[in-house]
Design brief:
Distance between the termini of chain A: 55 Å
Number of strands of chain A: 0
Order of helices and strands of chain A: HHHHH
Number of domains of chain B: 1
Structural class of chain B: mainly alpha
CATH topology of chain B: Four Helix Bundle (Hemerythrin (Met), subunit A)
Largest interface: A-B, 29 and 43 residues
Radius of gyration of chain A: 18 Å
Number of helices of chain B: 8
Helix content of chain B: over 70%
Number of helices of chain A: 5
Order of helices and strands of chain B: HEEHHHHHHH
Number of strands of chain B: 2
Shape of chain A: elongated
Strand order of the largest sheet of chain B: 1-2
Largest sheet of chain A: none
Distance between the termini of chain B: 20 Å
Largest sheet of chain B: 2 strands, antiparallel
Oligomer: heterodimer
């Protein structure tokens, strides 16, 4: 298969491949990539200060603020 | 939880407990999400057995789940997030077990799969509408818009797959499917982080829809890599 006709993911450099895999997500549940994605999502949900997002029902700097003493 | 749209007249030979024993292991190691799933399967398999013994029809279980979800939508609408979280747990219990009960009682049918899918969409939209009402009553037009966008892409996620699978064999691409969305809703409700949850649902739903469109185009153009 020539470079021009190879699937896009085979031509991408590693850093871009990371983003490509997130966009074109084909991993099943209960796999390691799935677990990593879940951990990243939970970290975002729980650590992002509600004030940064303008959360209408929660206020303050949240758990990240508590962890860093803000 | 979507039931397979196939008619199975007999109880499958592999039971629920047998199948869950091996489901969550990768090369002999249990994953984090697999372990969580395995823990929750213990009480669920008991409830499934009770429903099987009582011969409750799975379509009735689906309908009960939707009705309970409407109560969760109301709780979200009035800003009682923790209550909404508990109601969502109860509602999705029914949603999860209906397919398993259908298999174990041999009542799985094409209509059951269709009914389940339609009711799932209704449940999803009800929860989002509860949040739209809440943010509108708080006069937060920005979050009304974010919720409406998340709701739109949630519908598109299901539609893209359903339409794609009328053209190609399979279109199981993208992270943000219904179970992920429901668990996120519960996490947002129990920990009062609904704004962050809505952002996650919105962004990942957009990516899922785009991924499905790309996958369908690639399959139809004959460059296929099976997903």
């Amino acid at each position: 298969m020539s470079a021009r006709t190879a699937p896009l993911e085979e031509r991408l450099p590693l850093p871009l491949l990371f983003f490509w895999r997130i966009f074109y997500w084909t991993y099943e549940r209960t796999t390691i990539p799935y677990d990593l994605m879940v951990i990243a999502i939970l970290a975002f949900v729980w650590l992002t200060p509600p004030d940064w997002l303008g959360d209408p029902t929660a206020h303050g700097m949240g758990w990240l603020g508590r962890l860093l003493g803000w | 939880m979507t039931r397979p749209a196939v008619c199975r007249p007999a109880i499958p030979s592999v039971g629920l407990q047998e199948s869950t024993r091996t489901l969550h292991y990768i090369d002999g190691q249990m994953t984090f999400t697999g372990a969580v799933g395995a823990i929750f399967m213990f009480p669920l398999s008991a409830i499934i057995r009770i429903c099987v013994v009582l011969r409750i029809h799975p379509n009735v279980l689906t309908f009960i789940g939707v009705c309970i979800n409407l109560a969760a939508a109301w709780a979200l609408g009035v800003g009682r997030f923790v209550l909404a979280g508990f109601i969502m747990v109860a509602a999705n219990l029914f949603d999860f077990i209906d397919g398993k009960v259908a298999h174990q009682t041999g009542t799985a049918s094409a209509f059951g799969g269709f009914w389940d899918s339609v009711m799932d969409r209704f449940s999803d939209l009800a929860l989002f509408l509860g949040l739209v009402y809440l943010y509108a009553s708080l006069q937060r037009a920005d979050y009304v818009l974010i919720t409406a966008l998340a709701m739109t892409f949630t519908v598109l996620t299901s539609y893209a797959r359903a339409r794609a699978e009328s053209l190609i064999d399979k279109c199981k691409v993208g992270f943000m499917e219904r179970p992920e969305r429901i668990v996120l809703f519960m996490i947002g409700a129990f920990t009062n982080r609904m704004a962050a949850v809505l952002w996650v649902i919105l962004v990942l739903s957009v990516l899922t829809v785009a991924g499905r469109i790309y996958h369908t185009w690639r399959e139809l153009e004959g460059r296929g890599v099976t997903a």
